[in-house]
Design a protein that fits this description.
This protein is of the alpha/beta class and 262 residues long. It contains six helices and eleven strands. 32% of the residues lie in helices and 23% in strands.
Length: 262
Amino acid sequence: MNFKKTIKQGVAVATITLCSLNASAGMINVWGEIIGGNNSHINSFYDELSPHTSVNINGSLDSNNLNGVDLLWVTSPADDYTLAELHTMADYLTTGGRIAFMGEHGDWSPAQNLRINTALTFLGSSMKILNRMLDATFHDATKVNGQILDHALTAGVNTFNYAAFAPLINLSGNSESLMLGLDHNSVMMAFENVGAGSIFLIADQNIWDNVDQSSNDNARMFENLVTANTGGPVASVPEPSSLAILAVGLIGLRIRRLNANK
């Protein structure tokens, strides 16, 4: 038996397996009506962010299949949610899905925010959007200035670009603040585990305007929504120590199989 060749083969098998374990691909669906535009920007962002894929879905939510979807972006609704759509969201959460609700500041889309609030209540979330406008014009929230709070969803997010948001209120239970306004008191962004699923909430569409610029970490934040382990249902990647043990085991298994076939 060529022992060196066997070791190399075993390492190759282990390397391929480790790479596949570290690849955390997600399937994203985008649904709703962004004020003054469409969802193509969000959809394109995820679809071009390897290894993720994204689909911009149309029509009523209950007419779409959410099986296998890791993150559902629900943007400002032009009409009231139907009962069937609300049940579709609730059923999706029971499968461990994540929903990212995005409204806009209260001076621009108060009716849309109220519709999102209706959905949040139906789904069992404590979070709500308050129809006001804070921090007009563009700003950079940073970890240094204390606006970005430490959380699995903000890991690697040191600068976040935004403009004119509606604050979030009624944060209780499992809800967690992720980002604050300039006053360091008003909540701009929050997250909540609800049953088997989880909900992310923000009321500012401008967070997508400069996502392609290197001066901010908005792109990292949006990918974290798919991949971060927040104690909810998202599958976690094994810790490095576990991966090392797995690699050794794979090499040993490869050697035993080659010995058996001598």
